[in-house]
Design a protein that fits this description.
The chain is mainly β. About 0% of the residues lie in helices and about 50% in strands.
């Protein structure tokens, strides 16, 4: 069955870094555009970063441009989100998602706090 499993979240101080990973299985990963979403308490889920199926094109939420980098390894069915210079407003549950399959991971908590 389809599975997307996030890992790498946790607690980090402002200015710190984290790398999220998303392990995919049960579908043709290399034919899906992949995305990272996040949802903070009391807020709507928002699209953070997007990468095309072949990894050639990426796009980012304005507030994370220059700080976050999305990439993928189609040979390993893996996607990543490198997050640098983290800010308290980055605190949220982060989800990986495959499109057009509309498959979602269970989410992982990222907390940025001193």
């Amino acid at each position: 069955q389809v599975q997307l499993a996030e890992s790498g979240g946790g607690l980090v101080q402002p200015g710190g870094s984290l790398r999220l990973s998303c392990a995919a299985s049960g579908f043709t990963f290399s034919r899906n555009r992949m995305r990272w979403y996040r949802q903070a308490p009391g807020k709507e889920r928002e699209l953070v970063a997007d990468i095309t199926a072949n990894g050639n094109l990426t796009d980012y939420l304005d507030s994370v441009k220059g700080r976050f980098t999305i990439n993928r390894d189609n040979t390993k069915n893996m996607m990543y989100l490198q997050m640098n210079n983290l800010k308290p407003e980055d605190t949220a549950v982060y989800y990986c998602m495959a499109w057009p399959g509309n498959y979602w991971g269970q989410g992982i908590q990222v907390t940025v706090s001193a």
